Each structure stands twice: as structure tokens, then as C-alpha cells.
Amino acid sequence: MVTITIKHLTPRCLNNNDGHIVFDEILRHLKKMEPIEVSFEGVYSTTSSFVNSAFIELLEHCDFERIKSLVRITHSNSFINELIKQRFKSAQQATLAN
Predict the structure, then answer these.
(1) Burial class for 73, CB neighbours closer than 10 Å (0-12, 13-18, 19+)
(2) Disulfide check for 41: which of 23, 75, 78, 96 has CB 3.0–4.6 Å away?
(3) In this structure, how many other beta carbons lie within 10 angstroms of the beta carbon of residue 50?
């Protein structure tokens, strides 16, 4: 399993640019079907812009089940976990509506 520690890639998790840095790293491993652990160690808060860019845009390249089976979030808190869940849920609902 590959571990991606967000703090090693970007010092903050505030905007789309920060999210794209993480997105690129996650996608690189997803394309190879490698299991990934994304560590939020040292990160206590983030924004929906960051989550959208880092995680939700992955849906443009692979389906939710693939992401769910290969990506594991670690060292996060309930705020971050809930934000990621909400954004994925919203994205899935938007897809179903179209």
C-alpha cells in the first residue's frame, strides 16, 4: 500500500491548487490500481474546494467503487471525514440527476 501524506505534498489544504497537487498523486496510483492510504496527519481542517479538487475530481477518471476500494483516508478527524463523505454524496446525486 502506498502512503500519501498530504503535509508532505502541500503545507495547507485550503484551495483548488492545493487539492490538485494531492489529486495528481492519488490519480497516478489509481491508474496503476495500487491501494492508497491518504494521511491527513497534521491537518486539522480543510475546505470543500480542497476536497473537490483532491478527491471529487477523481470521479472524472474512475468510478466511485474503484475509489472506495483503493483509497483509504487515515489520520483524519470527524470534520474532514464528514466533509469528504458529503462531497462524494453530492457528486453522486448530481450524477444520478443528469
Answers:
(1) middle
(2) 75
(3) 28
Q: Where are the alpha helices (H) located in 6-55, listed in sequence order? A: 6-9, 16-31, 48-54
Q: Where are the alpha helices (DSSP H) in 33-77?
A: 48-54, 64-70
Q: What is the DSSP letter of 36?
A: E
Cell of 1: 500500500
Could you tell me which residues are beta bridge partners of residue 2? 36
What length is written for the chain?
98
pTM: predicted TM-score of the whole model, two decimal places: 0.93
* Strands 71-74 and 36-39, sheet pairing: parallel
Per-residue pLDDT reduced to its tens digit, 10-38 = 999 999 999 999 999 999 999 999 999 99
Asked if 26 contacts 36 with a C-beta cutoff of 8 angstroms, the reply is: yes
